[in-house]
Amino acid sequence: MDDVVKELADALPAGVVVTDPAALEKYRHDWTHDSSVGTPRAAVRAESAEHVQETLRWATRHGIGVVPRGAGTSLSGGSMAVDGCVTLSLERMRAVEIDTAAKVAVVEPGALNVEVKKAAAAEDLWYPPDPSSFEICSIGGNIATNAGGLCCVKYGVTTDYVLGMDVVLADGTLVTLGGKRVKDVAGLSLLKLFVGSEGTLGIVTKAVLRLVPAQQPASTVIAIFPTVADAAAAVIEIGRTVRASMVELMDRASINAVEDFRPMGLDRDAGALLLVQSDAPGASREEEVAAIVAACELCGAKDVEATDDPAEGEMFVQARRVHFTALEPRGAVLPEDVGVPVPQLPALLAEIEAIAQRHQVEIPVVAHAGDGNTHPAIVYDAGDPESERRARLAFDDVMHAAIALGGTITGEHGVGRLKAGCLEDQIGPAAMALNRRVKAALDPDGILNPGSFV
Amino acid sequence: MDDVVKELADALPAGVVVTDPAALEKYRHDWTHDSSVGTPRAAVRAESAEHVQETLRWATRHGIGVVPRGAGTSLSGGSMAVDGCVTLSLERMRAVEIDTAAKVAVVEPGALNVEVKKAAAAEDLWYPPDPSSFEICSIGGNIATNAGGLCCVKYGVTTDYVLGMDVVLADGTLVTLGGKRVKDVAGLSLLKLFVGSEGTLGIVTKAVLRLVPAQQPASTVIAIFPTVADAAAAVIEIGRTVRASMVELMDRASINAVEDFRPMGLDRDAGALLLVQSDAPGASREEEVAAIVAACELCGAKDVEATDDPAEGEMFVQARRVHFTALEPRGAVLPEDVGVPVPQLPALLAEIEAIAQRHQVEIPVVAHAGDGNTHPAIVYDAGDPESERRARLAFDDVMHAAIALGGTITGEHGVGRLKAGCLEDQIGPAAMALNRRVKAALDPDGILNPGSFV
Description:
The structure is a homodimer. Chain A is an alpha+beta fold and about 450 residues long. Helix content of chain A is about 35%, strand content about 20%. The longest helix of chain A is centred in the C-terminal third of the chain and has 20 residues, at about 385-405. The two termini of chain A are about 30 Å apart. Chains A, B: Pfam families: FAD-oxidase_C, FAD_binding_4. Chains A, B: This is Glycolate oxidase.
């Protein structure tokens, strides 16, 4: 432990700061598993906001970069370690408290999404945002990336549920923004600015999250389409009249990957599959399901099945959620997260198919189709540099295809380090300059999450 | 017209810049009608983003303050003219275009909220945010204040519907943020930062607004309570299980003011009235209405009536909306907009009653009760300085009562000029400093809406 790190370790309780290489290993990679990962000079496992403040004051004093880290499930390199930096882990700060009268959860950033959901459910309340990784990802990471998920098409994303936060700025100042009140327009919307800032502006040490009454068990429609274009057309048709609580798409490659991994009897010849849920209350459920079925049939579905059995529905949702895991045996994966306006979905999916052919890589696609947010997964052979080279070309091409269609390089994973080079291609030099101005105003020494997008 | 103004007038088409005192009169006051209003040196009636850019480049060059203005319906002095400044009116920029496939409206800032609603309705789509002034307020003003309204309790506020915008910065640079895509986390959430910034960071010249399928005609429940505390308890009870589409409260003074103005047979002896709507789809409506009625009865309502007739329901909503107009014959009004966490609603309402007695002023209250957002209206005699003095004391006391209860000085109207002095009391010095840092980064010369909250 060098003198500089020792100064921090001495200021914090024993065991908070670790520098042992074996212990540090855990804090290097996130789920990106990118080979450009560095090694931190230390990891700080904060147990309180005071520890975070102490760490940032120390980092500012010494000009040391700080990489914040929740559960380390970033798919865009958002919490990858950087050589010489300190990784600030929030994993030990995971208190969750429910205020039923105010319908809010007051949570620490290390709490897992699933832990907040469970605590809310115990009071017949619901915290909607549900990234596919909800069982293993932290609320702090969700806030950092403005995480989405499957129910967002009806219930919105993380930012829609953040009513308040404590955030520690680069210089160690703790600022409280918002609170338990639902509506508040006093001053600039700084709360919303910190959501999605990927640890580049400050570190959230507490959040007040809005809860809603418990969701009804949903009914599920599975529709098989000859082509992805037909499925995408059905997505638009459904959205015209129905507020479905889930509108997910799997293309042929994804269906086959899942069937290979865990056979469920999905139609391997389908061009695409739509998985649609309705949680409409009471007797209106039937009407909504009928409208979804009709929309699918109108758009050329060759097989449509509906079930009111939550267990059966959950089985299909599991098939969708397992997509990412199902790809593991096939090789390494570059996970994409591009989005387009919903009407551009067919064009984007066609473009992805062309890119897969052009670069001779497999690109199974799942999509939060109702929001136009797709997850093409570029599969490659990690041991074969040529395969990896082609995969990286495809990765860039997919992002530029989305941009060309008026879309985004990231709908919910964040820019992180993997996509930092492409951000300006999407938002343009003027918006990029504005990002830099806000960053410079809040973190003038640039110590927060260095090497990230701004 | 002085030489400096002439330089701008010459750069813009004829009729865009006006300096004639009679013509300027229209651009002095907003709905605040505050006596501290100034007189602008000129008004610019921009017809395009280019005119806005030209104006801001000129203002930066000469260090002249610019007060942006939509329909001039601010209740917090947000668009009050300032001596020596230029008022930049967006009233002529009011195009509205609906993209049905993407379910968005692309609008110019001067378009009225009602115009966007109507254009969406023509395509069976709906733009939810509905400030009480929706027939006369502009979308630009709605975005500037992150306006709310009656349906927010279920459908959220303006920021939840803004997917993209063009904004002109102080130096005249036009930046495009977001677009027609529903989910996008690329870069900092600058879009959300501009929403609610009250014209202090930039001027919105175009907005992309999210639309949803048309709302079903609602069923309405009217419940009469012996006390406001009972009514407030019912609000919490309703929120526990039901997602009502409207939860409005009127206290006795408000009921009587409305009855005096337009007799509707409301119970003048009621302590408070709740106006609750359900727009649950199809046959589930009945269940939701029954749950609302049961919650009201559980909390001591002495009379509860429900109707499925939209026309009858709308009559009650009109009674609620007319509140503000109904006060006109009673004197001048200082309109409040304080909010608290919903469980603090009874305490806030009791505190307001005590403040009314203490300062011997009438303070009828209506509230978007489901969100904890109240509109106490402090009535005073404009011709009597002593009455006005007491009203202003009450105005401050109401804000500090909300702050003491963990609330906000403004839930949806904005801080503007009227509440600028109280903002730091609510958010504290650290958050205030953060507001100033962001303001300085984006508007270093401080030309945008000078004298406003930051």
